[in-house]
Amino acid sequence: MAMNSTENLNRTAEPISMPAPLFEPTRATSIRRWDGARRTTTNWDSIRRDPELWFPSGDCLVHFYAQGHSRRGASLRLSLAAIESSNCGPLLQKYSAKVNAESPSTASDHSSSSDQDYFNDLLPPAKHELFIPAPPGLSRDGSFRFHVTTRNFFAWMFEKPLVGERLGDSLLSLLDRMNDFRGDEDENIEDILAYMDSQEYTDFRRCPDHALAILQFAERHELLELWRDSFCHCAGMSNELQSSDEFE
Questions:
Q1: In this structure, what are the phi and psi dihedrals at residue 59, rounded to the nearest 5 degrees?
Q2: Per-residue confidence (pLDDT) for residue 20, from 0 to 100
Q3: Mean pLDDT value of segment 142-154
Q4: What is the widest separation between alpha-carbon atoms in the chain?
Q5: Integer Cα distance of 106 and 129 in angstroms
Q6: Contact (Cβ atoms closer than 8 angstroms) between residue 133 and residue 64
Q7: How far does CA 148 lie from the centroid of its chain?
Q8: CA distances (Å), 213 to each of 8, 15, 41, 107, in order?
Q9: Which of 9, 19, 104, 158 could form a disulfide with 5 if both were Cys (CB 3.0 to 4.6 A apart)?
Q10: 164: part of which helix (H) or strand (E)?
Q11: Residue 178 class from Cβ within 10 Å (0-12 exposed, 13-18 middle, 19+ buried)?
Q12: Closest to 170 measured CA to CA, from 134, 216, 206
């Protein structure tokens, strides 16, 4: 089925040149966090360690690098049972590793937490680790975006808001990662649509960012009813669209 929006609503994403090194704080100034329920968009700079996805009772540390390649420590601390219950067989098979009592990554996890009051050395040791590096050959920007999407995969799992440069692109990247980490593309479409509803990204009322982002997603995946709904809202807010970061 063909669904082509008007030229004024064409939002095809293009690469953005951002030369700052990976994990350097200035690199994250263009990364935003979308709270759909509160209809707020704020700057986000928690790629090193995300307080929304750091659970003190979690038994699984998630690292954004290959095992043994860094002492930076984990970025996320999650429940392995929750990950296993989310049908993430491919993810666990490819990236999981048992924690060694003398693991440098575990030691660096504690040592790196001293400057942030929401992490402390009283946390029980984690029993599992996931090491998820960016694919070889990516630029620094590409690696950074890969890690942001990895973060968003777990944000989907634990029902937290998305972060990224643009909401539409982040949703598309999230679905691609769900297909990689879970398989079963039909189930992933259903799950991401449910997630979009729960985060209220599908509430388009007086919110051009939501309407444009979902229009982009629906057009890519040929979701006709969702496309019609978002397109009608875009048409009704046509005077406001150009002020949205989602507009191209």
A1: -110, 10
A2: 39
A3: 97
A4: 60
A5: 9
A6: yes
A7: 5
A8: 14, 17, 13, 41
A9: 9
A10: strand 162-164
A11: buried
A12: 216
